[in-house]
Amino acid sequence: MNQSCSSVKFIVYIAIVLLPISIINAYNPKSILFELLDVSEDVSVDEKFFDILVEKLDELGIEEDELSDGFEFMGGSRALNSYINKNASRLVILMGGELDIQEEAEKKEEIETDPEKIAEKKQEGFLFEQFESIESDEKPIERSVQSERDIYTVGGYYSLPMILSQTTEFFDRKSASINGFNVVTPFRFNKLGRILEALTKSKTGLLNPRAMFEIRAYYFEKVISDSVKEVFGGSSYFLIGFYDKINLSGRETDFSLLLGKTHFNSLGLVLTNGTQIPINLKNNNLKIYVVSKATLMHKFKDEYTGWLDLGLSLRYDINSSKISEGKGLIKRRQSIID
């Protein structure tokens, strides 16, 4: 009996402690906004969140000028966070949500008529701005997308050599071209990510490298005489490795490391860094990157060669779950027809 009474008292105590927290959350405009968008309060306010918000506003026929230029042009994650903080209450009302208007009006009137609270409010606003600035400086890097579990990315690129080694400098720079086609898969190397974080002293959970493969071609030519020319490369070569993407100052930045066979019949390494160009292509899955690639290949014995090239890459994200849903829908329709 005593044990039962103790359990009841404990449950009542927990309820009393948690009830004010739930009430505060219920009256938080940002929490209500996230609930209307059907997303978790812990969701990363990034490009995916931007797409959800824009899609919801479009469904309701609401036009927002600040969002019309797209995620990158409005300033990325930092600007979107600022927009949400300033407009959460207005968006909730526009979407048909309910706020405790009476309580807000009473608090506003109390602050406006009390000189001490006016000064306090100004100081709180100043401290909040300082804290927000410090937080953004301390955490300039965020994962661009938190739930890319089933995304395939296909892409192609074309680039030209910028810096050559002694071997490749022998060839005519104007004749050179480098291009390739690659696929980034959803398969992740979690242990590799933790190792890279330890080596680079990065934040835990920042890196989640995915498996990637690429078909790459490079061609350098040197005309020796009217009938003789020397060629470096000229065929397509298969490479495999890992790829990862982060959000740096509101812009997608990625890198990859690939290994494969070269025309020397030896091992070659390609390290790539890419930065998204903020161009609105009217398709959120289609993106353009500026890419720089460092190529290192073993010739023979202890000799190596390579180059650094710069170019453009066109990427397209494919959601495999949507493809599966589409196939399932086709099958269901076919079964109905049959």
What order do the helices and strands come in, and which of them pair?
Layout: H1 2-26, H2 29-36, H3 47-59, H4 71-74, H5 76-94, H6 101-113, H7 115-138, E1 141-142, E2 151-164, E3 172-188, H8 190-200, E4 210-223, E5 229-248, E6 251-261, E7 267-276, E8 286-300, E9 303-319, H9 320-337
Antiparallel strand pairs: 1-5, 2-3, 2-9, 3-4, 4-5, 5-6, 6-7, 7-8, 8-9
Features:
338 residues, Porin, disordered N terminus, 9 helices, 9 strands, alpha+beta, single chain, 2 domains
Task: Describe the protein.
The protein has 338 residues and is α+β, with helices and mostly antiparallel strands. It folds into two domains: 2-99, no CATH class; 151-324, Beta Barrel (Porin), CATH 2.40.160. 40% of the residues lie in helices and 36% in strands. The protein has helices at 2-26, 29-36, 47-59, 71-74, 76-94, 101-113, 115-138, 190-200, 320-337; strands at 141-142, 151-164, 172-188, 210-223, 229-248, 251-261, 267-276, 286-300, 303-319. An eight-stranded antiparallel beta barrel has the order 2-3-4-5-6-7-8-9. A hairpin with a 2-residue loop joins strand 5 and strand 6 (251-261). The chain is elongated and about 80 Å long. Mean pLDDT is 77; it is low at 1-26 and 134-147.
